[in-house]
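Predict the 3D structure for this chain.
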Amino acid sequence: MTEQQIEILSPIFKSLSVQKMKTETEQTKFNSELLASLEKISSIKASETLAFIDNVIADYQLADKKIKQKNKTQSVLFNPLTFFPIGETMHSFLIANLIDPNASHGQGNLFLKSFLKLLDIEVFENDNWIVTAETGRIDVLLRRHHPHTVVVIENKSNYASDQENQLYRYWFQEIYLPNQKKFGDKTVEQTTNNKNYQVIYLTPADWKLPSEHTMKRPHGYDVTLPDRIPIEPKIWLFNKQIVHWLAEASQQLHEENHRLREYIKQYIELWTL
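Done. Predicted structure below.
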């Protein structure tokens, strides 16, 4: 496959990983990209294009045959999580529950430490973390009083559109305001480029990125505040950072904890198969 072919056909490949567009805007955008790709294809020699398509089909059929053979002996395609529609809210609860050291999984801060390690946030033995999901409109929120730490997670697992000024409002509410009394007019300076204050934009695809309007200052806010959220959101993918976190943490589970290990394995497969 040439670089030109990859570039031209990339929107088509994206459609294979996104079975259903969640909004009319996203569908329109995708249709435009697909139309542009088809127009470009006409500039390539027909014989080259047909040969390329034949190779893609052959590769797919071979891979499909192999996975069916493996499924017969290991049932790798059987995943109970696919039987029930898991919406954005449920994904948030699942992730927050694992991160929460006081949750029913019984592993203390094992998942929390692994998660924060990816953010380069230090965890101390007597930390008191508060982890919430879907509270105050924030999908997942991690807070620690000493040293003061806030991690805001905006979950877009189901390709929801960004709300107007959404990330900016979360930053203002959870990071700026709680520090204003301590730092005064230096609050922005003290909380920016500080690893203890982070915003994560959790997305299922690398093309689903935060829009500019979600990061801009809302109308009516103090004009001395930054025009744009001063903390650059970290882009995390479910099939990369989340999978890496869960895979690394699950290796630390007790050898007899088959229940939790199998659940994590199935959740990982939900994003990777």
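The chain has two domains: 3-74, 88-272.
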